Amino acid sequence: MNKLVATVALVLVLGPVAAQAKGCLKGAVVGGIAGHYAGHHGVAGAIAGCAIGHHEANKARNASQDGTGQPAH
Question: Where are the domains of the chain?
Answer without folding.
Answer: 2-8+21-66
